[in-house]
Amino acid sequence: MITKVRIRSLLVSYLFVALSASICVASGAQEWKAFGENDEAFYFYDTKSVVRLADSHVRLQQKIVYTETGIRWAMEKHGPGYKTLNYAIGQVEIDCANKKVRVLSATAYSKNGSVLDSRTIKTKLWLDIPSGSMDERLQGDVCEAPSAANKNQSEGNTKSTEAGMKFVFGAIVVLVASWLFMTRKK
Fold first, then answer.
1. pLDDT tens, residue by residue, 37-92
2. CA atoms of 67 and 37, how far apart (whole Å)
3. Residue 1 exposed, middle or buried by CB count within 10 Å (0-12, 13-18, 19+)
4. Residue-wise over 87-121: b if at least 16 C-beta within 10 A, else e?
5. Residues 89 and 178 in one domain
6. Has this prediction a pTM greater than 0.70?
7. Are residues 68 and 121 in the same domain?
8. Alpha helices by DSSP H, the chain
9. Do 177 and 92 reside in the same domain of the chain?
10. How many domains does one find in the chain?
11. What domain range includes position 159?
């Protein structure tokens, strides 16, 4: 049997979730857009982090979520400490005109969310973007004309906000229904 104390704790939990969701929607939380996958990982970039710089350069955050194959590769390259690797987030810059990319910083996270490694790349070497690579796919997404990119980003932001508001509304309905159930007379 559900007690009033249990219902109150559920109400507090629902309220916390609803408030958290509304804060994320209002604060402009990251919006990860998938742009590719292979045997090693799934690849995303944060549409809200895309910044157009001078000389046709674009800077953004990229997220790589590793598969078991990717984790084995990381362990071979970086050692057994990467056994719990989940994902990495890095800041990259793309030279759209010359088809080059460089990594500015990267942080690797474990499955429990702790930081495995974090680096700011000092040399910031430019590398050619190979044909058919994930970097080429990313370049194709973010190096389009600014007006089209901004339109796509704006449409994505609207959809995300609408989805977040539906979630908040649903949580409020659950809260009100629970409150009515809790306060009704027997």
1. 999 999 999 999 999 998 899 999 999 999 999 999 999 999 999 999 999 999 99
2. 10
3. exposed
4. bbbbbbbbbbeeebbbbeebebbbeeeeebbeeee
5. no
6. no
7. yes
8. 4-27, 68-78, 134-142, 146-183
9. no
10. 2
11. 1-30+144-186
